[in-house]
Amino acid sequence: MSSNSRGKYFTLTTFGESHGPAMGGVIDGCPAGVTIDLAEIQKDLDRRRPGQSRLTSPRNERDQVEILSGVFEGRSTGSPIGFIVRNADQRSADYDEVKKAFRPSHADYTYDRKYGFRDHRGGGRASARETLNWVVGGAIARQVLTHEQVDTMAWTQRIGTIELAKSEAKFQRIEVEASLVRCPDSQVSAQMEKAIESAQSEGNTLGGCIEVSVNKVPAGWGDPVFRKLHAELGHALFSINAVKAVEFGSGIEGSRSTGKDQNDAFQKVGEAVKTATNNSGGIQGGISNGEPVTIRVHFKPVATIGSTQQSVNQDGEEVSLEVKGRHDACVIPRAVPIVEAMVNLVLVDAMLASKISRIS
Amino acid sequence: MSSNSRGKYFTLTTFGESHGPAMGGVIDGCPAGVTIDLAEIQKDLDRRRPGQSRLTSPRNERDQVEILSGVFEGRSTGSPIGFIVRNADQRSADYDEVKKAFRPSHADYTYDRKYGFRDHRGGGRASARETLNWVVGGAIARQVLTHEQVDTMAWTQRIGTIELAKSEAKFQRIEVEASLVRCPDSQVSAQMEKAIESAQSEGNTLGGCIEVSVNKVPAGWGDPVFRKLHAELGHALFSINAVKAVEFGSGIEGSRSTGKDQNDAFQKVGEAVKTATNNSGGIQGGISNGEPVTIRVHFKPVATIGSTQQSVNQDGEEVSLEVKGRHDACVIPRAVPIVEAMVNLVLVDAMLASKISRIS
Amino acid sequence: MSSNSRGKYFTLTTFGESHGPAMGGVIDGCPAGVTIDLAEIQKDLDRRRPGQSRLTSPRNERDQVEILSGVFEGRSTGSPIGFIVRNADQRSADYDEVKKAFRPSHADYTYDRKYGFRDHRGGGRASARETLNWVVGGAIARQVLTHEQVDTMAWTQRIGTIELAKSEAKFQRIEVEASLVRCPDSQVSAQMEKAIESAQSEGNTLGGCIEVSVNKVPAGWGDPVFRKLHAELGHALFSINAVKAVEFGSGIEGSRSTGKDQNDAFQKVGEAVKTATNNSGGIQGGISNGEPVTIRVHFKPVATIGSTQQSVNQDGEEVSLEVKGRHDACVIPRAVPIVEAMVNLVLVDAMLASKISRIS
Amino acid sequence: MSSNSRGKYFTLTTFGESHGPAMGGVIDGCPAGVTIDLAEIQKDLDRRRPGQSRLTSPRNERDQVEILSGVFEGRSTGSPIGFIVRNADQRSADYDEVKKAFRPSHADYTYDRKYGFRDHRGGGRASARETLNWVVGGAIARQVLTHEQVDTMAWTQRIGTIELAKSEAKFQRIEVEASLVRCPDSQVSAQMEKAIESAQSEGNTLGGCIEVSVNKVPAGWGDPVFRKLHAELGHALFSINAVKAVEFGSGIEGSRSTGKDQNDAFQKVGEAVKTATNNSGGIQGGISNGEPVTIRVHFKPVATIGSTQQSVNQDGEEVSLEVKGRHDACVIPRAVPIVEAMVNLVLVDAMLASKISRIS
């Protein structure tokens, strides 16, 4: 698998730099006969788009996807789906300051060490603009997954230290989308908005946590050993820029508890086998058990801050650096559709694998 | 990549069930000319071996590795290294009880749903006995990595709720290995031992946390986008049975802080570029920056407990189940070499990738 | 590896249908720091372009490549190189006839059976227009290979039954390109042109053979067992539409001879180890031995002929079919750069593999 | 994909050197629930075994396979199938002569150049003993393929210049196996035996050709572009030691003909769509069309000959070399089951791919 591809059966390969002519990618392995709704893809891109609210980067990108192949008369043909999204509102001059200097906690220094030189404009390939490619892939993955009723939903659980109390209540997608920060509780949402605005005004930035729940995953998805659902999801989620921790099910809290308290007893509910609790987060032995798959994804605060920082430049001189560019004070609200996309990319791969796990 | 393989350049493929004739695997892509020290491999296997202390499973396995190919006159030839480890002390009859019933929070149910039937003895392929294959692979990976001075060390940071306070002090491997639970602080170690014994006596089990620090990783290892060092390490670590959370650098705590507090300023130390802090955990943009790579890996409590549990069997009947078999009350001490192995498998792959990232 | 990708280290992933908006692809794994000369890529595309002479399809395509990423200030950055080539001169209406009917010896029937339906216009994904993506990839591969002086040259050895006598004479690229059919012998070339024109006038088509010689491949490229240079080249060449046979070195003729006559004795030439003969075609045990790599690639006659044929349609009815569309009576001349591209794609992968085959 | 693995869905990974302790491998991706008949595997190994007749190498190996995992109560479990075959009758001292010198047309020189040193005993990893691993994999692949009635049969078509006339007659497997050289025509078989004995007595060796016909491959197997059935079969067959040419369908002869003569017209035979001729060899556009898949595989003469040859040694000195060791004067008869194995490995992969090519 090349570095810019993911997925064994449903493979997304991507390219593009923040300040190059276009982002884009190829989806290979989408089964033939899936209805591809372009408006649905665009809707997810719009949820990720900069400039969608006063809380996000003012970079103005329409992020309009152009499908170049693989879809004929509204359905996937089985051929690879090529797509591009043109970059439009670039201000490369904003990055002259960092042409030689390395921004702290960015990828400037490490790319330079790896490749010997770098496209410094907007972070080049390390830019989070890459994630729009994943949203395109994830939106198509979702359209395949609807054939099995699988439903992935993510929401903002925490911004900085403002967090949603744990609750058994199930949220509706409409409640999530009603909030500028994608937190389904309107009171907590209001506090989170304030926290972001306050960070913005101080030239500071915040991190946070996104929760995911995937409903109706059939029992039996995921493979043993090195393609465990945990491992594949972990891989996909740690591919997202700024993700520093991932938890499944009861996560760290569960690891402080005991086997007697954590084990999920099996029981019959009508004819179905269910578990009394879901500390496992819907995955046992790396394979789905039919319960909701639950994940928490933690993001570090955005590295681009509005104040002078100490750094070093390519010539090995210490410099003090002030970074321009149009950035978010907190990426969590825009990251919600990105997290959903990555989860859907993993699940569609597991769905296809499940079709060939036994002889029929 | 097949489900039982990992690594693009240095590929480990494994097989084996807990109660089959043997475990084993193939390492493909080990460069020619590496000195292969069998005693070093065996030493790591001994650190993972059941029966190594009163705190671990009494299953008595010598776990002696036999190398079948790829090594000639003490050096790797570039050909695949095949190996097996015979299973010896099996008591398959212990598992008659679970032939039909599904152990809660085990892989019995999910394997059954995926494959239609299962080898029920000792968990079959889902058994943690598989991890000895990884330890063999990791031990060989380590022998390659010594060519670049890379040094991976893991230790027990927490068992249940007993934990090592965060400290800047660097531990020595000898301090870790002096402890039955692999915790380098002798006082905390003693408390942890007690906690495990107490759980044992109650038929209960504990989880915990293992910390890792990798020193001397050169700047520039790891690839962008879908082979980020985070993503590859996350994948490898979530492949370990019972791992439910993984954190890099300042992890969840860092995600509650702000960009101003978290950014790692660059500075010169002599001629070297270093960072003033290491909240990034040695990885920026998915690529190593030359600082120690720091990781925390959280394990759920062992699912096999010594008390009667409610469950369901293959025929869809509710049953109450008491599981025999010889199990650990806490896997953390034995998991330390497993975590090291997985980290080394990822790093050797990144090391090889780094050799072809630019034209020379 | 997905179906539309090839190469482990230098991976080309492609998309596009003959009558869709664009062809395109992603090259992942090109080392950083390689000078990328766009004019060189375009020159290879022009050698493959329809409409380049009276002997080729009159479809008029400029086949202008647009590089979308991965190149900065004239050099590869190590990031994936995305590219597209817009389709322009399509006449989809020409294909109304085959919307339902299956063209004999084309992919219409097999795609229909595989996917349940198909994009019938111009052969969809099965169109040889796909090969322009390979020419782009191969042209970039060649620019990497020049760092090791490797030089791949192909020419037309046979069209129908008109063939170039075997000769030890080495051809110059300029002699090949001086010929409309890319045969370096001007007399044979003239005969071949006549043969194609004669087939054209009869609504018939011809096949033929392309020879390849790769000079200055260092000894030690290629991997044992399943990545033998033979196997990788065979795979790449049999991926080309209409290729029905591939021979290495003395090929079929050599297989009729004996070991005593075929073995290539080693000898010293100055300080270099050379072979007295090159029946092995530069590859022994799947690995290059430093002699020229020699290959013969045989193409069946073009399946689109200018006469009425018996066939069957989607509804299972027998039909008689007359195919329109603008087609070549012989693809050999345009296939020469395609063969070179495939060989270069394989060799650049072997070159990168060779950098990590032993510990330094 | 690592160098010692093949197959995307049904992946065979192998290891072992001729004079090491054992050969072996791992089959990953065999669907659960397939009946695994060990006797069938052993039967194929016996067809490949040295010492099976006076015409083959007298090395005496029982080649008994031991399955180590993945099979439970006679059926595949979906877990990887590990296996080993111990090496027994080694005479490493036979190879002292070639410890430093390079045997002409063998892999000695190229391995040395690639890896810097080599296991010289019996050719090490380059030994054709590796092919027994493929026979194990292929025998299991065949047991999966019987679920779809697919039937692969190969036979000796030519040894040196003695060849079976082309015939439309279908052979029975029993006729093939009745012949010491696996040629189904008893008169031609007798001539072939004589040719081999004559070569043996002169210390010379012969090559030849194996034909394959695969019956009942359903239409729609194989993938476009880089996983065409041609390409995958070509790859697998060129992986076999000594294979120098591969032809599909009417092959080179067909490439000398015209489109009008070569096109395979579609017709109805009852309800089925069939082709009037099968010049395409059962594959169109890289995908099976339901007709028999027909292939010809040409082998060079064995490189180990019984006479003194000129060569060079590791120190760069010219030497004259006489090779001992027990070798076949012609490998064709023993290669028949190897060719079948490789074809079956490719087909089982295509069969699994076909299950996920469209949404159901």
Task: Tell me what the structure shows.
The structure is a homotetramer of 360-residue chains. With 360 residues, the first copy, chain A, is of the alpha+beta class. Chain A has one domain (5-357): Chorismate synthase AroC (Chorismate synthase, AroC fold, 4-Layer Sandwich), CATH 3.60.150.10. In chain A, 27% of the residues lie in helices and 22% in strands. Chain A is built from 9 helices and 18 strands. Chain A has helices spanning 38-48, 108-115, 131-145, 173-177, 186-201, 229-238, 251-255, 259-262, 332-354; strands at residues 5-6, 11-15, 22-28, 65-67, 71-72, 75-76, 81-86, 151-159, 162-163, 208-215, 243-248, 266-269, 272-275, 283-284, 287-288, 293-299, 309-312, 318-321. In chain A, the strands form 6 sheets. A 5-stranded antiparallel beta sheet of chain A has the order 1-2-3-7-4, with helices on one face. In chain A, helix 1 (38-48) packs across helix 3. Chain A is globular and about 65 Å long. The first copy, chain A, starts with a strand and ends in a 6-residue tail after the last helix. The A-D interface holds A 8-9, 29, 31-34, 78-79, 144, 147, 224, 352, 355-359 and D 8-9, 29, 31-34, 78-79, 144, 147, 224, 352, 355-359.
In brief, what are we looking at here?
The structure is a homotetramer of 360-residue chains. With 360 residues, chain A is α+β, with helices and mostly antiparallel strands. In chain A, 27% of the residues lie in helices and 22% in strands.
